[in-house]
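Today's session is about reading a structure prediction critically. Students often jump straight to the picture, but the first step is always the sequence itself: look for stretches that repeat, for charged clusters, for runs of hydrophobic residues. Only then move on to the predicted structure, which in these notes is written as discrete structure tokens rather than atom positions. Here is the chain we will use throughout the hour.
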Amino acid sequence: MNEIKTFRVAGLSCSNCAALIEEAAGKLPGVAAASVHIGTGVLRLEKAEQHNRENQAPSFDQLDRLVRSIEPGASLLSPSGEDDQAPVAEGAPGDAQKKHGFSLRSLDSQSRVRFALTGSAAGFFLLGFLVDQPLLFVVAYVLAGFSVILRAGRTLLAGRPLDESMLMTVATLGAWFLGEGAEAAAVMVFYQVGDTLQAAAVQRSRGAVKSLLDLRPATARLLQGDEESLVAAGSVREGDLLVCLPGERVPVDGVLEQGCCAVDTSAITGESLPRRLDQGDAVRAGSVVTDARVVIRAVAEESESTVARMISLVEEAASRKARTEQIMTRLARVYTPLVVVGAVILAVLPPLAGFGSFSLWGYRALVFLVVSCPCALVVSIPLAYFAGIGAASRRGILVKGGSFLDVLAGLTRVVFDKTGTVTTGSFAVSQVVPAPGVDRQELVEAAFRAARSSNHPVSRGVVSFITAARDISVTTEDLETRARQDEVRETPGRGTTVFPGEDSVIQEVIRGGSARHLREEAGLESGGEGDLEGSPFHVARGDRYLGYLLLNDELRPGVVQAVERLRSQGIGEIFLFSGDSRKAVERVGSLLGVDRAMGELLPHQKVQEMEGLVEEGIPGGIAFLGDGINDAAVIARADLGVSLGGAGSDAAVEAADLVLMGDDPGLLSEGIGIARRTRSVVFQNIVAALGIKAAVMVAAALGVASLWMAVFADVGVTVLTVLNTLRILLRPRR
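Below is the predicted structure for this chain, in token form.
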């Protein structure tokens, strides 16, 4: 994969300009692909492979000049991966601050100047209308239209004359020429009003990403000996000790080294209640310590923290456009030239054919031009998908692209992994059952050596039980010493095979795991598998079956209700896949009320089962929700791969299209609700924009529409669709 470089574009609120920057940047030497998203204000470049000097990637200055040539008010900031993106709050390091609502004070200086100019232009226009003074219309036109006309001139010189600024300039200057000064001023003033409100809406929608940036404290309290010192959060290294006081955010991922506390993780996971953490527990960056001074040992640098991953996922998601966005982008490229040609035909052919004067048809053509601007579509649709991604991220649901919102909205089937997904993944041994003639001590020692090197939840449960047991004559240190030289081979989803080291008294191979593993590896039968109410860990040494340890797992709180909510949302079929024993999987499946529960599946068999479900051709998508490294393949194969962000392995999170940061499968139903709301808003915006514009364009051609109607059909519809889009960010009442 080619290297990706990201830049922030300040002052970008024009959707047409964003499309032009994307197109121009993609054509630069050394660039394989480019994307600009108005919602995030981020320019992403995929560098081409360098074969010669001419194919080198463009410099920062080249890109900055390109951006400024298309949008004079915009500028390029340093690469987003290199600058300090997080706003630095005054006061203690990592202070938790929350910002709500929208106000002029929240805008940048450029936006405030735009609001002032637009407000002044609107004031002069209204005054001119009341006192019937043409000079005031001229003042209003100049205040509102100067930047639009300047942009039109720049695009004309750059060889890109057919954009919305040029349409507005031609239409309003034509109206002045025809003696319709009041209407010309009205068109320009209300166009600028709509453009200003659009810019404010874009900044409002960016609040989702800004709220993530606020989770990254600028400083951290570094503990060295007995000395505390304030350092930049970016300078913290793995293994450093950090102090967090009540009310401060945790700057990096870590574990509690000293003390215990409650942490507010609502900004990361969406959970409303604080979590209680004890010494040795993991704590995520962005969490707020609420009630005690604690010392945390860093386990990752700031750039690799949970918050950094969330920011990266959200920004990458915005660059992956949904199919509807792509269609509208391509449509906008041919739409404007066709409209200009149509306006020219409307202005010239009827008078030449003797159906009226050039001034009459020229006025109708100007109305046609104003109506035809595609602002409502090219603004509201990308903004809707970004708002959907932002609304989901605030609930701890990270969607990796607008296209996945569409898939999420259309889901009809869901497959759950069992262990660690619908269950807690914390197995506890309930029984130790030696085979006839086998000493319990021998079974436990062999089980420890078989489970010690495996990261499977069942193996971890076996090791935890044995290390904590008090009725075993051999100490944990002795067991570790005997197992240290073992060579272990693991079959994912089945079990382990242990080849004892040279110093081991008994050289027979030890096998531990499922009954199938023992049967296929050593031809041993365990017996009684189907009657066991739990997950057995079978153990054998050489050709002798030693017995098993029976473990049980608990359902995650709320998972039954989560399945019920999915049913109420129209999910027709729900399945349960697991590598655990059939009996254990069927027991959990019956508690959840799934349609089918399948056990003893290896990773490749899960993929085969998923492919079988996909090939059934049932309308709608199918999702797989898992957490482990052995789920990565089937997550990638599903129409929508979903992973738990905290409990999930890095491989599963990387392969997933949707990440649930709260480790709560119930968030999937919330994500479906947000996705369906987003799809509904996109559909409403398309129908409203195309319907109203088509009606007024026909009316313009027939001579029954004025420039006032055109202003509503263009600016009014744009404002309405943008306001409709912002509804996505509102959390619906339950």
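Discussion point for the tutorial: The longest strand covers residues 544-552.
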